[in-house]
Design goal:
The complex is a heterodimer. By secondary structure, chain A is mainly alpha-helical. Chain A has 14 helices and no strands. In chain A, helix 3 runs antiparallel to helix 4, helix 3 packs across helix 7 and helix 3 crosses helix 11. By secondary structure, chain B is an alpha/beta fold.
């Protein structure tokens, strides 16, 4: 019985495939919707300084609908394997999707339209879904004492998530009420903590295991990872408090510290790549590398914004480099790899012959997605610098084309997976 | 790679309790011996602190047979592994000396995995290694030796993430046995 109980733990680390794939499929749909909404609102992107409307809705369709949705699906599947501790129960993971997925739709509608019922209802659902996710991840991390390269940054991500949810609640409650003395400062702190804190630190934590696993290299040593997480945490604190208080020197110091942490993180990743067994990097890695280039650039833009330099350009530039350049490149790159990987893994877990990763992955479609994504980013950045709505529309069109290619990739993968499953 | 290692004759399987001993703190007495001190007192003190069902792990520059027999009389089973020319690791388990002495010559890979031969072929023990080290060790072994046709893996759980990588390399899992902290997989290269 003892042995049986142990083995149940060993097997249960693999969640039912419906759970992670539900999150991934939703992320793909929101990816399409986000670019579609941005295409319709592209004229408002150059010079955008914040405020309700379709640009803000498109931004949250990406940050919540694609980035957070992907992070949730990936964390539920990968974190228990990395930490070797249970995460769940499975029904709670499913419940977080039922709260979060419709919440994002409703909230995005509210952000575009300004309707209070949609804003409040959507925010309540989305906050509840993310809070449940945070609780589940925290429950897993509390049982781990031997993996600081993963757990230290993920704890910082969870602390950031808590702050993000509080700030988001305040910002939503303020709509129509106007009780916040400086709404723009609160929104800036919300952006810093959501982008670099919640998502960025999750990326840092997962990178410590996922990237070595994908390229077949030794994991990042704890002793090297911990100081990077500590510097990043100080950067977040400086950046968020600086943005909230309006002390530009503190926000600027946060950007500089963030740049130091980012460069140290990138140096660790470069060492992983240098020690890898898999000499030929797979196509998905183009997006990861692109994201890594954009991360320090986004921090440079953040520094300009913190110092109040060219805000009409540096504000939208920062948002684009952070959200589309760094995080969306990284998240879709990871999705390109883990969706076929998990499909192959689950086909093997059924006991039959596993479907090969190479059979599930159509490289030309992935190339099309990566190319369109890169073109979209370049055009959107150019539109901001040149203050050109036409270029912004072209950029959003490229983004939509990339999102379509990504959806086609997912459909091809599922068709091939089902065909393999039927042949068993 | 496996052929390049100088393996002794096939041996018995390690004891079942070994998995639980792998993450114990190691008492290394090599420096004491190198300095001319007798570590017996420290070892006995450490053994006194072990409760029934507990473990003591000792690193020594040779196979400490006298110590193993002394502790066997006090109820300890032991399993010794020669990790290198002058480096033995002895795992003691206070279980009434039910299986009191086993030895094994092993090779240790960079990832920390242990390799040895048994009657049914090459074995690799990746238990207690942190991800992705187990996958890395197994794939390095498979990729590094085209002549390797079979491999027995000792894992602490089902290595789900390994399966897609094995399939890509033309390997499959022929059989699995599940014991407490020892999920054993017989891997085969497909013809």
């Amino acid at each position: 019985m003892f042995g049986g109980a142990f083995m149940m733990g060993a097997k249960d680390r693999l969640l039912p495939p419906a759970i992670p794939f539900r999150f991934f499929a939703t992320a793909i749909v929101y990816h399409l919707v986000a670019w579609g909404v941005l295409l319709g609102a592209a004229d408002g992107l150059p010079g955008y300084q914040g405020g309700l409307g379709p640009v803000l809705a498109a931004l949250h369709l990406i940050t919540l609908g694609v980035l957070a949705m992907t992070a949730m699906g990936a964390a539920y599947q990968m974190l228990p394997v990395a930490t070797r501790r249970q995460l769940g129960p499975a029904w709670a993971c499913s419940l977080s999707w039922w709260l979060f997925a419709p919440g994002v739709a409703l909230l995005s509608f509210g952000l575009a339209d300004g309707a209070p019922w949609a804003l409040h209802g959507g925010a309540t659902l989305a906050i509840a879904g993310l809070a449940l996710f945070g609780g589940l991840v925290a429950g897993n991390l509390m049982r781990v004492g031997d993996l600081p390269a993963v757990t230290a940054p993920v704890w910082v991500a969870l602390a950031s998530l808590l702050a993000v949810l509080v700030l988001a609640g305040l910002l939503i409650a303020d709509v129509g009420q106007g009780f916040l003395p400086d709404r723009a400062s609160l929104a800036a702190a919300h952006g810093v903590l959501a982008g670099y804190g919640f998502m960025g630190m999750l990326v840092m934590g997962f990178s410590a295991v996922l990237v070595p696993m994908f390229v077949l290299a030794p994991a990042i040593p704890d002793a090297q990872a911990k100081p990077v997480a500590a510097i990043a945490a100080m950067a977040l604190l400086s950046g968020a408090v600086g943005a909230l208080s309006g002390w530009s020197w503190l926000a600027g110091a946060g950007a500089v510290l963030g740049l130091v942490a980012a460069l140290l993180y990138l140096r660790l990743q470069r060492r992983v790549l240098a020690a890898r067994m898999r000499k030929r990097l797979e196509p998905f890695f183009r997006l990861l590398k692109g994201g890594w280039v954009m991360l320090p650039l986004s921090l440079l833009a953040a520094g300009l914004l913190a110092l109040g330099l060219w805000p009409e350009v540096s504000a939208p530039l920062w948002g684009l480099l952070l959200v589309v350049g760094w995080l969306l490149s990284f998240a879709t790159g990871i999705l390109q790899r883990i969706m076929p990987f998990l499909a192959s893994m689950h086909s093997a877990a059924r006991g039959g012959k596993p479907v090969l990763l190479s059979q599930l992955t159509p490289p030309p479609v992935l190339t099309l997605h990566a190319g369109a994504h890169g073109a979209a980013l370049a055009l959107l950045l150019a539109s901001v610098v040149l203050d050109s709505p036409l270029i912004a529309r072209l950029g959003a069109l490229c983004g939509l084309a990339g999102a379509l290619a990504f959806a086609v990739f997912a459909i091809i993968m599922m068709v091939r997976y089902r065909a393999h499953h039927r042949s068993q | 790679m496996a052929e390049a290692l100088d393996f002794p004759a096939p041996q018995d399987s390690p004891p079942v309790w070994l998995a639980a001993a792998l993450d114990q703190t190691v008492l290394d007495v090599r420096s004491l011996l190198a300095a001319g001190s007798d570590p017996l007192g420290a070892l006995m003190d450490a053994a006194d602190g072990v409760a029934f069902g507990g473990f003591l792990v000792v690193d020594a520059p040779f196979n400490p047979s006298p110590l193993r027999r002394v502790l066997a009389a006090r109820g300890f089973s032991s399993y010794g592994r020669r990790l290198g020319g002058g480096h033995w690791r002895i795992y003691f388990h206070l279980n009434g000396a039910a299986d009191w002495e086993h030895d094994s010559d092993v090779a240790v890979m960079d990832e920390g995995a242990m390799l040895w031969h048994e009657q049914d072929g090459l074995h690799i023990d990746v238990r207690k290694l942190r991800p992705p080290q187990p996958m890395l060790a197994i794939l390095r072994l498979i990729d590094g030796d085209a002549a390797l046709q079979a491999l027995v893996v000792h894992h602490e759980r089902h290595p789900q993430y390994l399966l897609p990588e094995l399939a890509e390399r033309g390997w499959s899992v022929a059989r699995i046995s599940e014991e407490f902290q020892d999920v054993r997989l017989w891997l085969e290269r497909k013809s």
